[in-house]
Please model this.
Amino acid sequence: MTAASDGGMRSILTQPKSVWAVAFAAVIAFMGIGLVDPILPSIAADLDATPTETEMLFTSYLAVTGVAMFFTSWLSSRLGAKRTLMFGLALIVLFALFAALSNNVEAVIGFRAGWGLGNALFISTALATIVGAASGGSSAAIILYEAALGLGIAIGPLLGGLLGHISWRGPFFGTAVLMAIGFIAILTLLKSEGKDENRPAPIALSAPFKALARPALGLLAIAALFYNMAFFVLLAYSPFPLGLDALGLGFTFFGWGVGLALTSVFVAPMLSARLHRTTVLRLALSLLTLTLVAAGFSVHSMPALICCIVFGGLVLGVLNTVLTESVMEATDLPRSVASSAYSGVRFVGGAIAPTAATALAEVFGDPVPYFAAAGAALISVVVVFAGHRVLRRVNTSISSELEEAEAIAAGEPS
Model:
């Protein structure tokens, strides 16, 4: 290790306690999406629910997260970072605890929706807070934040499987406890902003909606809408045809999450530095389409389907990062506004996919949701191809590391 790299590592690790408090809470927040994945079959069995009803745990969560994303920049620019973080964490603790204590699937679905609101408020504010409080410059803060993001994505399904192996209520109780610790840490360690100090200028409520009228951003949002349908078929529907217990599902999607985290942080920047982003998008979306077709044909072979899921995670990591980098360069709008608009649309696609997948499986058979997801990914390929002239701007260089990370943070499906 060189002296420069050793110094860089020290700058990342030598951070104020407030930064570690927010980073810890960020890990737990990003765990939220994959946490319930391994326990979907258990919830269906214990609460006498159909697969379509249990998939509503994803739909309610993602629908509320998507709608909230349109308004989080408006709210946080008025409340301030610390209040927004604490409000989001408090909602997650409250609704995760209520979900753990529920005795019917309808209640769990409703409380999961409240959890989605809390998560949207938290993740929309966490990055700016870490950058503002970190030592060693924005680069060190961004690496720390992306590490927290990757850990959360990978650990969520594993923790869900380990706790869900005991009871489906375990992951909900675990999240409530961990987020309560995060709430206390931020309350005690993070300084409040002064009335005028470091307070962002208020953002108009209509800003994210007007942003979608920009042609390049609108095209990317449409591509992301269909891409996210494919994403959540792979993540949310797969536990049912796999037929594994909670522990087996936890390890499977831990592999998926590790692959996604690694390619998001390391492979995607390398590819976009060597190729046009639109080229990377076309190639990765085409590869995702083929992966989903392979999953459809492999649905009755557990080892083959697991391989498709894990390989899909590698592809999804590239797409998450490059899509959100592209959004950042698509317009001259403030990055937070563009990312909020894009994220709101893409989460709608995620909300539609899980329940649609199980409904298709019930009528047409287990392979069909994967073929439908492949069709959705193919639509995204066509959108990127057809809009190549409008999207020419996204192939320019990233303005700054901070802006890149802000876009990636808002675009991640947490």
Q: What stands out?
A: The domain at 15-194+203-411 is CATH 1.20.1250.20 (Growth Hormone; Chain: A;).
